[in-house]
Amino acid sequence: MKDKVDVAAIIATMSEKFAIDCIDHITAAELSVQNMVKGIGDFDENLESLLRLVHTVQGCGGTFGYPTISVIAQRLEVYVEALDQVPPHLDKIQVFLNKIREIAEDRQEPEATYRDQILQSLPRAQRRSGASSSAKRSHKAA
């Protein structure tokens, strides 16, 4: 007779692993933001690194029991995409990262009321007409 597989234990382990990996990804994303703030390295490469890390977190959050992390990460991607210029908004980008980190460090999905407060507190950007991809990303664009 086969032993029963403890699916709940497997899911809990995977959820914990995601939280740890998520914190690592957010730490790396924060380093990219700090590099952009301080002018360290290539701005566009730092931005691409940030977006790649956030996209990874966004894609995995819901799968491992953290749908709010996925929503915040997706909203961060939309926020950055809507910007004409990224540099003036680096502090607001950090707000998104802080919220993701907070949830991952708590090791649990927030309750609905708190989740709604978090989502309502996130910065919002309005897409400007005629904004080009290269102009919004470049730190040198006027």
Helix amount: 55-70%
SSE pattern: HHHHHH
Number of domains: 1
In total, the number of strands is 0
Q: Helical segment tally?
A: 6
The fraction of residues assigned to DSSP E strands is: under 5%
- Classified in CATH, the superfamily is HPT domain
Rounded average pLDDT: 90
Largest sheet: none
Task: Please explain how this structure is put together.
There is one protein chain. The protein has a single domain, classed as Up-down Bundle (Four Helix Bundle (Hemerythrin (Met), subunit A)), CATH 1.20.120.160. Helices cover about 70% and strands about 0% of the residues. The protein has six helices and no strands. It is globular and about 60 Å long.
Quick gist of this model?
The chain is an all-alpha fold and about 140 residues long.
SSE layout:
Layout (H helix, E strand, L loop, with lengths): L6 H32 L4 H19 L5 H16 L7 H17 L5 H10 L11 H5 L5
Helix pairs in contact: 1-2, 1-4, 2-3, 3-4
Keywords:
142 residues; mainly alpha; Four Helix Bundle (Hemerythrin (Met), subunit A); 6 helices
